[in-house]
Specification:
The complex is a heterotrimer. Chain A is an all-alpha fold. Helices cover 78% and strands 0% of the residues of chain A. Chain A is built from eleven helices and no strands. By secondary structure, chain B is an all-alpha fold. Chain C is of the alpha+beta class. Chain C is 24% helix and 35% strand. In chain C, strand 16 (308-320) and strand 17 (325-331) form a beta hairpin. Chain C is elongated and about 75 Å long. The chains are: A mainly alpha, B mainly alpha, C alpha+beta. The interface between A and B is large, with 89 and 87 residues.
Chain lengths: 269, 293, 371
Amino acid sequence: MSVRVGRLAIPTGTLLVLLYLLFPVVVVVLISFSSARFLSFPPPGYSIQWYAKLLSDPDWLNSLAITLQVGALTTVFSTLLGVPAAFALSRYGIPGRSFVTALILASLITPTIIKGLSLYLFYVPLGLVNTIWGLAAAHTVSGLPYVVINTIASLRSADRDLERAAVIHGASPLWAVVRITLPIIAPGIMVGAVFAFIQSVHELLVALFVLGGVEKPLAVKLWAGVRSEVDPTIAAVSTGLIGMAVLAYACAGVAQLLSKRRGLPAAGP
Amino acid sequence: MTVPVADPAPARMSLNRALVPALLLGPTLLWIFFFFLWPLGLMVWQSFIVKDAFSLDHYASLFTTPIYARALWTTFEISIICTVGSLILGYPVAYYLVVGDARIRAVVMILVIIPYWLDYIVRSFSWLILFGRRGLVNRFLIDIGLITEPLQLLYNLGSVLVGMIQIMLPLMILTLFGAMLRINRQLVAAAEIHGASPWRAFWSVFFPLSLPGVYAAFLLVFIISLGFYITPALLGSPKETMISQIIMLVATELFDWPLASAAGVLLLAVTIAVVIAYNRAFSIERLWGGKEA
Amino acid sequence: MAANVTPSRGAAVRIDRLRKTFGSAVAVDSISLDIPTGSFVTLLGPSGSGKTTTLNLIAGFLSPDAGSILFDGAIVSNVPTHKRNIGMVFQNYALFPHMTVFDNVGFPLKMRTKLTSAEARTRILETLALVELNGFEARYPRQLSGGQQQRVAMARALVSHPRLLLMDEPLGALDKKLREQMQFEIKNIHRSIGTTFVYVTHDQTEALTMSDLIVVMNYGKIEQAGTPRQLYETPENQFVADFLGGANLLPGTVAAVAADHFSVAVEGGFTVQVPRDRVAAKAGDAVSVLVRPEEVGVALTEDRQAGAECVAGTVTAVGYLGDSLKLEIAVAGIAIGAKLARARGFSIESGQRVFVSWPRASARLLLRSTR
């Protein structure tokens, strides 16, 4: 008896958990297309008025611009720093490697409120508070782990002999990395870069401390909105953020798929 | 007899071998030092300073002021319940991802990963819509005649937990899944061939082998739960105030940076202590293994 | 046409007391070896014998702890890999997955030469013709079969006319039939271009088929180096005898030394004669008598001929191999393997009493190693 119950219980349980995970998200998306002024669900009718309102609101557009700037800088910094670091960690016998790795990953489990508070204390005397650069520098610390982990995973699954084949047939070691290894692990790097970007877009607390006072990135403005005037505009912004995350994730997925089709190694998540 | 030729190459190579990784890793380490470690150090420093002198006063007031002490306890309580809840809900899903029908599995995987990459604010906000006085749940209950007056579903421990567990579930599931994937499933088949019922084969073979993954996932989710801010702030009442909210409040409303720092140090210390305790028992690498699998 | 593909001359490689350790494990234990210009040399040995490490040292992927490697008399230890002018075929081919066959083969030209693109194109097509792979230029490696990938790897290794070609078990991933075909093709290519080839394998048939010189390695040391014939017919120790094909090694003790032969008391209780050659053995030495299975004859009646040994035994196992019959015969407690070539119509069963014989001249005395 228990066998049959088990066979049914697990798919059913999985389905319920998926419902729990996704239903609220679907509700937000649907409400963003509501014709009503209130957050009633299901919406009485559908329209795109809230998106129109958003796109004509210079405040929201400004927030979007700030978020994209910070996100882009974070992605570039994380990638430029993280890829060489991943090479060092996976290719060289570095003393205290697991310590260095732990140091790079430590940001992932550090409560964001601590990052926000400590960076604020650090930035105030330096005049980095309320600068896009300051926030991007902080977000880079949190973006690095994603790039490093994904690059290491790709390097691990990439055949080392390919690089050796390039070197023995005349390419300098550096050129072999640029010409052979980097193109092969590029999808893995891209996945890491996408994650670095998404986490920057979502991050609230550091942004509140470091940039919240003057310029509001999307997360900060959304947070303010959620806590006060709750109307479908907020749902529209949320849907925009959902769309951005899904799109970024899909890009990473497509890159993976293409590389798999070309017979290249694939990376996480 | 030729004398073995002294080889100049190894010396140069070993220099390269030291210099190259230093150049590759240096910028990252500098970055982490300046934008992570140094600020943390500054925060620790601040927490011990009262009027330019060393003091433990801030810590004393943290533990003696009821509202702060209570928040500390609440943080622990909520984090534990949230972690246990995600484990109970997440384990079967992770198990399904390992043993279920291959095509459905791929879809389930995507449906678990998508919310993982959604904004905490968005996900917490959605419960406001569902649990509000005129929200979907209350309207449904009134419509079927179970209640006449809307229930207060928001701003209590329940709503905070519903929100937090929903946020932590994907991480829990993916970490468990990564660990379960490493279990040799032929062992379960072997147990069944040798007479164990599927139920017993699961409990005597698969479950014990999945325990390292359970510990890893439990720790990861617990640590991240400790630092929650958005969900309790949005879905909780003052009774559910967590330590991150205290830090925010003290810093931005009371402008008491040293006291906020002390609370931050405390949270950081608890986080590090949990990780170290875990690292003693297991290997730190496992913590990251799951997410990347 | 072939003249264009022929490089000036292959390199003579000299390995001088080369040593490489990994932690406490000695991978290559002070070996010395001369590889003549233009020859086909095979490093043969089981896994862990140090053959691949030696190859990687020649390539420059590893740097030796001691000793040196010389190409045409010049030490290459401080020449980085990419300037050693070597071609290499890797075990899994290591074709660049993001490049077409044309770009893969053209890679060494781009790195090493200043050919115009027209000249490079000619050279690439010539080399692809050499490995009989024209018409595949635009394909990607994943669109090719294993055998075709192998040919691309060969073409890439040869296109820049390197002085030395290294091959690391290049046929290991192919099925048996293709492998045998490729053995001859590689040999033909070697003959037509005259580059020095260093080939690593654990397959003795491959080594015997292709090599001018076989170097048998074990535990980081060279057990014996010689032509295929020398190694097969006059192995210097049990390891070499055993590694190159089937071998009966009858354990015994030298009973007497005559002018032209040794008398060996085999442990089972019978005595055999072995021709005396360079092996320095004296009465009382522990030795093994090597008898190749294909030299062993089996008869149902005793047929003692001059110059042959003949002992009685019982068949313990029979294996039918199609072109031959494989027997195991217990002679006084010692198992002797026989491989009978013309087995058609010859029927024999397990448990039968038989007489085993072999020409005395085919047997060989080996000192029993204490290793």
